[in-house]
Write a structure and sequence with these properties.
The protein is mainly α. Helix content is 72%, strand content 0%. The two termini are 23 Å apart.
Length: 71
């Protein structure tokens, strides 16, 4: 799944949904540091005014869950 999402991201690097879905996939694969960096990237983009359909609170919750677990 990661490879397909990365390929999609190369086609349209402005699509935050791809970045977010890669982060979720990393999260589910227990690659927490990779997931964390991508969640932060998505949050920063949204905070900078990038339009997205991603629920900000959901991203924040996922990031907080990673931060509250020992890696």
């Amino acid at each position: 799944a990661i490879n397909y999402l990365k390929k999609a991201l190369r086609i349209d690097p402005t699509k935050l949904e791809y970045v977010y879905n890669i982060a979720i996939t990393f999260d589910k694969m227990n690659q927490k540091e990779n997931a964390k960096s991508l969640y932060i990237k998505v949050i920063n983009a949204i905070n900078s005014g990038h339009k997205s359909n991603i629920n900000y609170n959901e991203i924040s919750t996922r990031l907080n869950n990673i931060n509250n677990v020992s890696i």
